[in-house]
Amino acid sequence: MKNCLMIKKMILVLFLLLAFVQTQANVNNRADDPIVLYSQLDNTPRGSGVPSYYFNFKGSIDQQAADDFLVTSPSGWSIEEVRVISGSINERGSDDTVNVAFFSDNGGLPSVTPITGCSYSGLQGYSIGSNGEFVAELPEVCFLAGGNKYWVSIQRIDSTPVLIANTNTVNNSPSVWRQRNSDGAACFNWGNAALECNVGGGAPSFDLLFSLIGRGEIVAAPSPVTVPMLNWFGLLLMVLMLTLITRRSLLNK
What we know:
This protein is of the alpha+beta class. The protein is built from two helices and 14 strands; from the N terminus they run H-E-E-E-E-E-E-E-E-E-E-E-E-E-E-H. The chain has one domain: Jelly Rolls, CATH 2.60.120. Strands 1, 3, 4, 5, 6, 7, 8, 9, 11, 12 and 14 form an eleven-stranded mixed sheet that branches. 30% of the residues are buried.
């Protein structure tokens, strides 16, 4: 009777070990690679583009296009990369310096200033593919809380105007634009890019071709405590030992 109780305890221990190993394997195999969090790149291009560039030499030129998106994950998004379609940025494989900024929503328009910690200047981006897709990797993640609407802008830093491709397909709110030039040009504050600022080909309203890459959870969350665990070799040895003990117990009956 005592031997049977011991065997049952051993079997229970073995079962718990197997369950722990399987659980640990599932945790280690979670998809932790960056994913496409939001994309408008598949929308049909309009055939025109919106100027978005910054140049400061004997008077600044500061033209900025922005488009909105909704963070659908309740736990928020950690954005690591922004992509746009542009025929004006250098050819495939070459580099360009850009500014990237994220804005909170302010009554259907971007806020005046970017979100703290989510504004990046002088990033070295690069072009990929043959459709003018441009990639700007963020040096630090931009975490945006879930359930809120935000705006993103990307500017080229150069004296040559850059055109961000646009589309007649409008998701959420239409694209907006501002021109904070030193000469006090029109659309100093954010306004509808097509209807109020008359850029990108004018009416009707349009969106920009862009996408956001990152993770659907908080990257900066505290790391879980590492729990020591048996590898498969150690687990096999334990199974063999339990088998031998069980066999000896049965023979001693």
